[in-house]
Amino acid sequence: MTSTAQRVPRIGIFGGSFDPVHNAHLALARLALVELQLDELRWVPAGQPWQKARGLTPAVHREAMLRLAMADEPRFTLSRIEIERGGASFTLDTVREMQAAQPDARWFLVIGQDQYAGFHSWQGWQELLARVTLAVASRAHPGRPVAALAADTAVQRVAHKAVALPMMDVSSTDIRDRLAQRQGQRQGRGQGIDDLVPPAVARYIERQNLYQGQPGS
User: Fold this and answer.
1) Which of 13, 33, 133, 208 is the most core-located residue (most Cβ within 10 A)?
2) Cα–Cα distance measured from residue 113 to residue 146, given in angstroms and rounded to the nearest whole number
3) What are 53-90's pLDDT values in tens digits?
4) 152-186: pLDDT as tens digits
5) What's the CA gap between 113 and 95, in Å, rounded?
6) 132: domain range?
7) Number of neighbouring beta carbons within 10 Å of residue 138
8) Does a structural domain hold residue 206?
9) Of 130, 139, 140, 136, residue with least CA distance to 150
10) Is residue 178 a part of any domain in this protein?
11) What is d(CA 214, CA 58) in angstroms, rounded to the nearest whole number?
């Protein structure tokens, strides 16, 4: 008799400011699809992260850049849940809402090493760990376990999946700084960030004159 058991969907959640989305974000997302055997990786641009002191670029632009960056991968989807919620963005609230809508799925939370090191400071992190499997980007520390980066021993004991990343020296802060420094300079379109973001994102930033005169984190 043929089994009628339905396969449990495997869904990854990848949240962040994405201000702007860059090549390291995409490298992690693509590796997560493979390493975690995901059916879907859900990008979740933040409304206003509670740990971010600076104001973010308007969500309409961050969302547009994300849609351009993820266009070639059908397993990438975008959730507007935190943008629509308004106010401070807490990952636990997002996970609760997504799981309520799809209770039969298996959930993975994809985070970077810096986020993992401060995970113990997240609101409701104990409940969050009970709801998801952590998938932590692993790079820059050959031979050093990812768990050693966590500041709380309870977090260190949690089983997690390390997603091995190639070394990529790129950050959203660096991109914003480069563009701010270009202000007033006569340079060709897209110069300075072509090696850091997808071409379509570079063109969007140029057309919208984003990050002009906005250095810093």
Assistant:
1) 13
2) 7
3) 567 899 999 999 999 999 999 999 999 999 998 777 89
4) 656 666 667 777 766 567 889 999 988 988 765 55
5) 20
6) 10-171
7) 20
8) no
9) 136
10) no
11) 13
Q: Is residue 58 part of a domain?
A: yes
Distances in whole angstroms, Cα of residue 144 to Cα of each of 26, 42, 149, 162: 24, 29, 9, 12
Please name the amino acid found at residue 150: A
Max Cα separation, the chain? 72
State the DSSP code for 47: S
In a domain, 145, yes or no: yes
So what's the pLDDT on residue 1?
A: 47
d(CA 161, CA 148): 14
In angstroms, how far is the first alpha carbon of the chain from the final one? 59
Chain-centre distance for alpha carbon 209: 23
DSSP designation for 49? E
Nearest CA among 128, 121, 83, 111 for reference residue 15: 111
- Nearest Cα neighbor of 139 from 182, 97, 168, 108 is 168
Which of the residue ranges 32-36, 49-53, 187-191 has the most confident prediction, judged by mean pLDDT? 32-36
Number of domains in the chain: 1
**Of 49-63, 111-125, 141-155, which range is least confident?**
141-155
165: left (phi over 0), alpha (psi -120 to 50) or beta: beta
Count how many residues are written for the chain. Answer: 217
Write down the residue that tokens 């206003």 correspond to. Answer: 48
Tell me the CATH number at 20: 3.40.50.620
H-only helix segments in 13-171: 23-35, 59-69, 81-85, 91-101, 113-117, 125-131, 153-156
